UniProtKB/TrEMBL annotation:
Family as reported in the entry's similarity comment: Belongs to the TonB-dependent receptor family.
Source organism (scientific name): Piscinibacter sakaiensis
TonB-dependent receptor plug domain sequence ranges: 39-158
The protein's name in its UniProt record: TonB-dependent receptor
Location within or outside the cell: Cell outer membrane
UniProt main location, coarse: membrane
Classification via Pfam families: Plug, TonB_dep_Rec_b-barrel
Alphabetical UniProt keywords: Cell outer membrane, Membrane, Receptor, TonB box, Transmembrane, Transmembrane beta strand, Transport
Length: 912
């Protein structure tokens, strides 16, 4: 059986391409202009035609189809945005690239070969939603480190989005992508116009405007989004239900615990009327709490709520992008240009309704009209005392955050040749990304909500078929924080750069070429948090105020291509960067290309790289907060293991000091690639590249618990004892936050195949692009053994063993059609907490999706493309994970698309 795939991913050596115009161009990863056939590093090129045939609307969709891109929490469905990790929290509205799975901040994203501002929410990485895909001519993906050329962030590789230039005419396009089951539909409209020809008229102006919209897909709209599958090891671990569960608190009606005459001495600390009646599932989303699965016998009479299954699978998103460019040929050797790119995206993230846990101050009052007396089920129930409970406030609505991101870049530059032999370019640009998040329904002001709960007018036990009383709804609306500014952040970059390249001499084996350049940047970042500076909000994600900070970067770089002997070329590059806030770094790169015969190419490279600490990691304000759970004092507790000693030091809850670390050093890398490209015929090419990346000084967010667990490595300098000598005493705390950890090692193989042939007047092209992760090992301390994570479940990045794209395109006359396959291998699943049921499968299955499309150009000026995505309506594979600290309940959005089968139609008409 031939498994076919979209033509997206062939890393094909340029020497095997037919009909290539020998024009000197700059290839991503090198500063030397040269003819394309001279490329020495693996650069994957994806054309506009291929993007359109695949029904791709945005850069996020494109990155999901690149095998070298990691399987991490980088798309809008998997970017939880509320989790407690500082790096990800409040990162709303941001989609990121993540080559090699090394994190979005280790992938450099360029637009027309130059930097753009990082997303305003965190300043960690470029937001892919800003990329104007309707104006993209091609995308080049460098799967090798490039710090020697571009500086920071290029450890994992480089993605260069190259826009259309010198366009003359006017065209309009429309696109729809509609799911069969409903929800998650996508629409786009675009206009492109241009006037003038640089060679003939000495000028060209062009503009592109595009708008696309992605509709919401709710968790209840797909059956696989289901957090209650106890036979497979998946069940919600929460008693916060729409019909509230009473909780054990001393001084309340059920007390801290209770017993039942029928179960002997077993104590319980949860009680739900529906559980006693065997009717937990009578309320949508509720189920009997699986106390045996979780090893929690005290919750035997609680109900649970499938909060994961209620979460939004695809958040609604609207994007508007504008590109304007004007170029003027001052003379045959000099062209001046101005380019403006502006974008706005509005993303609406919705989480499950808030779970409210009351205490004595907010417990339901004895005289309340909805007081729930369980004395018929619990003999010890004391109806003279208030009720503490855990309630999922579905009446409050799902917690909603709307994030608007406005971004732009304005670039002015000159490019051309000097003395007919030296190519040069120089540019001045300014770029900015500003993100603002505003709370919607589901978030509540703390004081107003506490007052509403304590008043008794809110009924947490609304029976099936009834609704919250008017007085209760009025109290909830009065506590709503909808419209409150959660945060706004702004990232800005100003850059002046230039490069000149050309041939220095003609050697016996060929031309000796070189390039030199400079790069000056000023970067700044500011963050303002509204959720804590105004009226405190229930469980609103928070980050401290962040006054504007900035830094200057000065860099010089050089590159030389040396033809050693016939067929053997060495390229040497080096870059020196000087950062105003942490110092200097120098990074070299050497690459070799050997072509003994035209059918064989052997290539390899070695380079070092670095990633500068982000502003957030350096300068986030440090703050104290109590550590959840008990820990043991690493010094005093051992002394307590003697008769009469104070054992309280073995179960303490001290404060932890978390935040930025101005002493952070940049991450560093050493990496290599070795590759072989074979082109035995003029219609077939195969390429295989082995690679390894070793990072050190990895910036890691350490927790206070890890400080204690690794006390021998950290030592007493990370412990501040209080005036009484205890960590939990007055003035005591544990220092944590961002540190430079030891690092990780990632190793893998890329495989690419391409075949093109003629058959009965038609052209048939087959392509294959795959990435195998042999190993990803990581550790915090050099004294520790490495931990292997390839093929293992992880809450952030999944290092799945194998991903590929495979496809066949058939072209004859005005018709072309593509059949494609996307494949992601399975991995070892997250082990269920508590008792592992017999039905648990320790491995998540592989995920395979087929797509088809057809294009017709037989009508003058009109292009029609229709397609079916996910032809066989394949559901995402099951995983025993339920939302916490990673998105998805019973499925994983890092791996799979939840939309199911979808139908696409694209029309493009050229008016002139």
């Amino acid at each position: 059986m031939v498994r076919a795939i979209a033509v997206l991913c062939a890393t094909t050596p340029a020497f095997a391409q037919q009909g290539t115009t020998l024009e000197r161009v700059e290839i991503t990863g090198s500063s030397i202009k040269r003819v394309q056939t001279e490329g020495a590093t693996p650069v994957q090129t994806i054309t506009r035609t291929e993007i359109e045939r695949a029904g791709i609307v945005n850069a996020e969709q494109l990155l999901m189809r690149i095998s070298a891109n990691g399987t991490g929490a980088d798309n809008l469905s998997s970017n939880v945005g509320i989790q407690l990790g500082t790096t990800d929290r409040n990162n709303n509205g941001n989609s990121s690239a993540n080559l090699r799975g090394l994190g979005s901040s280790s992938t450099l994203v360029l637009l027309n070969g130059r930097r753009i501002a990082a997303h305003g929410a965190k300043g960690n990485s470029v937001d892919l939603n800003w990329i104007p895909m309707a104006a993209v001519e091609r995308v080049e993906v460098l799967k090798d480190g490039a710090s020697a050329t571009y500086g920071t962030d290029a450890i994992g590789g480089v993605i260069n989005f190259i826009l259309r230039k010198d366009y003359a005419g006017f065209e309009a396009g429309g696109f729809v992508d509609v799911t069969e089951e409903g929800g998650g539909n996508i629409y786009r409209g675009s206009l492109l116009g241009g006037w003038g020809n640089l060679e003939r008229d000495r000028f060209n102006v062009m503009a592109s405007l595009a708008f696309d919209k992605q509709e919401k897909l709710g968790g209840t709209e797909r059956s696989f989004s289901n957090g209650f599958q106890p036979a497979r090891g998946l069940s919600p671990d929460t008693a916060g239900t729409p019909f509230a569960t009473q909780t054990g608190v001393a001084g309340t009606a059920i007390g801290a615990t209770y017993t039942l005459p029928t179960t002997g001495s077993q104590t319980y600390n949860r009680a739900n009327l529906l559980s006693f009646q065997g009717n937990c599932d009578s309320i949508p989303g509720m189920s009997q709490y699986q106390s045996a699965l979780w090893g929690a016998p005290g919750a035997r009479f609680a109900c649970a709520y499938d909060y994961g299954g209620s979460a939004v699978l695809i958040q609604p998103l609207e994007r508007t992008n504008f590109v304007g460019r004007g170029a003027f040929a001052i003379n045959p050797d000099t062209t001046a240009f101005v380019e403006t790119v502006v974008g706005r995206s509005v993303a609406t993230k919705q989480f499950e309704p808030y779970q409210i846990t009351t205490n004595l101050a907010t417990a339901y009052p004895v005289n309340g009209p909805y007081y729930q007396n369980l004395s018929a089920y619990i003999p010890s129930f004391d109806a003279t005392k208030p009720i503490a409970y855990r309630w999922r406030c579905t009446d409050c609505g799902g917690r909603t955050i709307e994030t608007t991101t406005d971004a732009y870049r304005v670039l002015a530059g000159l490019e051309g040749t000097l003395m007919k032999k030296w190519d040069y370019k120089i540019g001045l640009s300014t770029a900015e990304s500003k993100a603002q998040s505003v709370l919607g329904e589901g978030y509540l002001f703390t004081a107003a909500m506490n007052a509403a709960l304590a008043s008794g007018v809110v009924n947490p036990w609304v029976p099936l078929g009834q609704s919250q009383p008017a007085a209760g709804m009025a109290a909830l609306r009065g506590a709503s924080a909808a419209g409150t500014r959660l945060f706004d952040g702004k990232s800005k970059t100003t850059e002046l750069d230039g490069v000149i390249s050309g041939e220095l001499a003609q050697l016996p084996a060929g031309a000796l070429s070189a390039a030199v350049g400079f790069d000056w940047r000023k970067e700044s970042y500011a963050f303002s948090d509204g959720s804590t500076t105004t009226n405190p909000v229930f469980l609103a994600p928070f980050d401290p105020e962040f006054p504007k900070v900035s830094r200057d970067i000065k860099a010089v770089f050089a590159e030389v291509a040396v033809p050693v002997v016939k067929g053997l070329e060495a390229t040497l590059a080096v870059r020196h960067d000087d950062y105003s806030d942490f110092g200097t770094t120098t990074n070299p790169k050497v690459s070799l290309k050997y072509m003994p015969v035209k059918q064989v190419l052997v290539r390899g490279s070695y380079n070092t790289g670095f990633r500068a600490p982000s502003f957030f990691q350096l300068y986030t304000a440090q703050a104290l907060s109590q550590i959840p759970g008990n820990i043991a004092d690493p010094e005093l507790c051992p002394r307590g293991n003697v008769a009469g000693a104070d054992l309280s030091v073995c179960a303490i809850r001290p404060n932890g000091l978390i935040g930025g670390n101005p002493a952070l050093k940049p991450e560093e890398s050493k990496q290599w690639t070795v590759g072989l490209v074979l082109s035995p015929t003029d219609w077939f090419t195969a390429a295989i590249d082995l690679w390894e990346i070793k990072r050190t000084n990895l910036i890691y967010q350490i927790t206070p618990q890890q400080i204690i667990a690794n006390y021998a490595q950290f030592g007493p300098s990370y412990i501040q004892r209080g005036t009484d000598g205890r960590i939990d005493g007055p003035g005591g705390f544990i220092r944590a936050g961002f540190v430079n950890a030891d690092g990780d090692i990632t190793r893998g193989t890329d495989l690419s195949l391409q075949a093109t042939g003629k058959l009965a007047g038609a052209t048939i092209t087959g392509t294959f692009d795959g990435t195998y992760i042999d190993s990803h090992r990581t550790r915090i301390f050099s004294s520790q053994p490495y931990v292997e994570t390839a093929g293992q479940w992880n809450s952030r990045d999944l290092f799945v063993r194998w991903k590929h794209q495979l496809g066949v395109t058939y072209t004859r006359g005005p018709w072309s059609s593509t059949v494609s396959q996307s494949y992601t291998s399975g991995y070892k699943d997250e082990k269920p907490v508590g008792t592992v049921p017999a039905g648990w499968n320790p491995k998540v299955d592989s995920y395979t999706v087929y797509n088809v499309s057809a294009t017709y150009t037989g009508i003058k000026n009109l292009t029609i493309t229709a397609g079916i995505k996910n032809l066989f309506d394949t559901d995402p594979p099951f995983t025993a994970h339920n939302l916490d600290f990673a998105a998805g309940a019973g499925w994983d959005p890092r791996v799979a698309d939840p939309r199911g089968r979808a139908y696409t139609l694209r029309l493009n008409y050229v008016f002139f």
